[in-house]
């Protein structure tokens, strides 16, 4: 804990979930800032801060805040509009979820861009109440999990149905124009975009991934064994066909892209979700993209073709598309699919009538494109921190295994 003085007030600054010995780079440094005396009306905002887009006034009597400092060294993150994107998404999510009985989106009180003279951006935001959902999720019984799933479905439904401002015209990230309007911009987790369509977003991201693979001394652009030619052929002529059957392909909405239990807080007594946090990877995309990136461990992501050897994942994908059987199957091992949880999540999505895999014709083809994207630059052989810690023998084994999976996927796609 650090104690500093600010405007005649002492501020206690405490890191949240920070380990100085962690071998991996944090995407953000998050701190709790506690004042020794509460704020008074208008004391926490200058005239300049009041005019900042995406900001709310600091309420009177507040003593604690959250300070988020995006790590400029975080792998693959674009800093030019990283803070602006997060603030803009929070503003949209707050409006989309304003009707909920429990406020779940933190207010932003001020922010600084990393695109200016200083490379360090920052966000000052509301400290939300509650306990991390993932701290108790594994030990919850099915009824308790259903209560969480029901609220998650309502949040997701509201994000999908929220009418975006007309100034947001593309797929990707967000920023603010000189008039304070929220406008389309670079997708911060990719450093590319915005794009005019969902298909174009994947095409653009695949080109970025291929360029990164070319730079890797381990992957070497997947040029061994003729794999690169097959990738190029798929991107050039196969990708457009994958989106022909995707229903409502021009639909776009707020996508959190990390909507999981570790980014939610709740009240254990009431079982009410009290916060949805961390919009660092959030973007504007097709509703299906949320299912590709979120719900891992609490409902299950919807992935691309998992290969003909993974029977549980093949079955799960089929059930998400066509409905779950009764009785539910037994998991093939103790770490396998938790079928009751998966069914409970789908039941809540159906109850609220969320746009989901079963109601999105052609989603499986888009999921296959996303799978190819992730296979081109797999984390285990591209992240500099893990490469530093992992023996070269293990790295090369991972590379060979990934190439085998990539080849199987290309075979599956007919390339």
TrEMBL record:
Record-annotated Aminoglycoside phosphotransferase domain positions: 63-296
InterPro entries in UniProt: AGP_Transferase (IPR051678), Aminoglycoside_PTrfase (IPR002575), Kinase-like_dom_sf (IPR011009)
Top-level taxon: Eukaryota
Stated name of the protein: Aminoglycoside phosphotransferase domain-containing protein
């Amino acid at each position: 804990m650090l104690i500093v003085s600010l405007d005649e007030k002492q501020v206690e600054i405490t890191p949240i979930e920070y380990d100085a010995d962690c071998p991996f780079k944090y995407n953000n440094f998050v701190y709790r800032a506690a004042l020794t005396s509460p704020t008074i009306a208008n004391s926490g905002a200058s005239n300049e801060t009041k005019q900042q887009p995406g900001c709310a006034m600091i309420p009177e009597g507040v003593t604690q805040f959250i300070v988020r400092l995006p790590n400029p060294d975080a792998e693959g993150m674009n800093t030019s509009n990283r803070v602006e994107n997060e603030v803009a998404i929070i503003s949209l999510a707050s409006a989309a979820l304003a009707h909920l009985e429990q406020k779940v989106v933190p207010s932003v009180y001020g922010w600084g861009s990393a695109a200016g003279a200083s490379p360090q951006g920052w966000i000052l935001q509301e400290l939300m109440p509650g306990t991390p959902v993932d701290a108790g999720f594994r030990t919850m019984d099915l009824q308790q999990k259903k209560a969480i799933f029901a609220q998650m479905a309502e949040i997701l439904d509201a994000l999908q149905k929220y009418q975006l401002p007309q100034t947001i015209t593309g797929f990707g990230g967000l920023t603010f124009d000189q008039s304070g309007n929220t406008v389309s911009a670079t997708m911060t987790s990719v450093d590319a975009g915005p794009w005019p369509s969902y298909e174009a977003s994947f095409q653009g991201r695949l080109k970025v991934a291929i360029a990164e693979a070319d730079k890797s001394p381990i992957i070497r652009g997947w040029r061994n064994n003729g794999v690169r030619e097959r990738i190029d052929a798929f991107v050039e002529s196969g990708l457009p066909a994958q989106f022909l059957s995707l229903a409502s392909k021009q639909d776009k909405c707020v996508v959190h892209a990390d909507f999981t239990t570790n980014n939610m807080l709740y009240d254990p007594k009431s079982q009410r979700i009290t916060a949805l946090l961390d919009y660092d990877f959030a973007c504007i995309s097709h509703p299906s993209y949320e299912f590709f990136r979120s719900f891992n461990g609490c409902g299950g992501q919807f992935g691309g073709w998992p290969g003909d050897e993974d029977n549980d994942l093949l079955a799960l994908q089929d059930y998400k598309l066509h409905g779950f059987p009764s009785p539910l199957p037994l998991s093939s091992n103790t770490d396998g699919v938790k079928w009751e949880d998966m069914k409970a999540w789908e039941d809540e999505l159906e109850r609220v009538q969320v746009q989901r895999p079963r109601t999105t014709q052609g989603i499986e083809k888009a999921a296959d494109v996303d799978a190819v994207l992730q296979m081109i630059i797999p984390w285990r052989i591209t992240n500099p921190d893990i490469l530093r810690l992992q023996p070269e023998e293990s790295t090369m084994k991972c590379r060979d295994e990934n190439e085998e999976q990539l080849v199987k996927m290309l075979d599956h796609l007919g390339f």
